[in-house]
Design brief:
Length: 319
């Protein structure tokens, strides 16, 4: 199956919501500790087993996350280690990019997510303990959300509600917010260790998943948050990223510092549907295409971007 070697270790990978084979990959030199970052726009052609690079953009600091615009098919946003949020347009030459840089976070920016409902705004989460809301027509943030007491690792929009998002933090909580309200509507002590990732169910606005340093994934109903609906155990180290499937209500993808990507159905007693041990370093980015069911991508500190179909071996055909 197709694989692309990036110059720097990978941190995040996202399928385009507009083009079946277009992929965004965020990378960081020296494992994100010190050095440059690079954002890659990649293309997987249906008739070819090869991933080609359409464009790449270098930043002075590591890129920890990326996401596509939901309103413009050539725009993408990157979360950068210097705290900036940078907007790129790959239809323009590298010398014209980034087209915008938002510089408000006082520490590393760790997550970005574009609103899939309203499509006019995006969130950033930072190690400065805050989440910020941005729109393209304003040079400064619309609002800053301040409640977490430690690094915020992710802030993710609810795909069923234009104003609701969740954030997860090293303070071991997940918070649910409505941008129209002054404070969070729910604080959930979801794990006893840091929570590195969260994601909303794509079909039920009350269900979200969390991934933690405690090696588990927990699925929650925010209407009854006293205990998780499900706990998915199997990863050997911290769960780095959690992604609900855009195609099946109860299915989710995870990746971990144990170097594996796993596929789960949280409603099944034997929940683990698939295990992909193709990375040789920490697996830190994973996604499923919204346009092609069962088409997965992952990246990791081995500086490889894999794309494969569910049920196949991501390493098949590699020499």
């Amino acid at each position: 199956m197709p694989v692309f070697k990036t110059p720097f270790p990978g941190y995040s990978v996202r399928f385009s919501p507009f083009f079946e084979g277009r992929i965004l990959a965020a990378t960081a030199q020296n494992f994100g500790i010190l050095g440059n970052g690079r954002l890659h726009v990649l293309e997987l052609l249906p008739s070819s087993p090869v991933i080609t690079e359409l464009a790449s953009f270098e930043t002075a600091d590591a890129i920890y996350d990326c996401c596509w615009s939901e309103s413009h098919d050539t725009l993408a946003v990157a979360a950068v280690a210097d705290g900036s949020i940078k907007l790129f347009d790959y239809s323009l030459p590298a010398t014209s990019n980034p087209v915008r840089s938002f510089n408000e976070h006082s520490r590393e920016a760790h997550s970005v997510d574009w609103n899939p409902v309203r499509r006019d705004s995006f969130l950033s989460a930072s190690w400065d303990d805050t989440v910020k809301l941005w729109t393209l027509d304003r040079p400064t943030s619309v609002r800053t959300f301040v409640e977490h007491s430690y690094c915020v690792y992710a802030a993710i929009w609810c795909p069923r509600h234009a104003d609701v998002f969740a954030s997860c933090s090293g303070d071991r909580t997940v918070k649910v917010w409505d941008v129209r309200d002054p404070g969070s509507s729910l604080t959930l002590p979801a794990h006893d260790h840091e929570i590195l990732s969260c994601d909303w169910n794509k079909y039920d606005a009350s269900i979200l998943a969390t991934g933690s340093v405690d090696k588990t994934v927990r699925v929650w109903d925010v209407r009854a948050p006293r205990a998780p609906m499900a706990e998915l155990a199997g990863h050997g180290y911290a769960v780095r990223r959690v992604r609900f499937s855009p195609h099946k209500e109860s299915v989710l993808l995870t990746c971990s510092y144990d170097m594996t990507v796993r596929l789960w159905d949280f409603r099944k007693e034997d929940a683990e549907l698939g295990r992909y041990p193709h990375h040789t370093e920490f697996a830190v980015g994973v996604d499923e295409s919204v346009l092609v069911e069962g088409l997965f991508a992952s990246t990791g500190w081995d500086a490889l971007v894999y794309v494969w179909q569910h049920g196949s071996d991501p390493r098949a055909g590699l020499s």
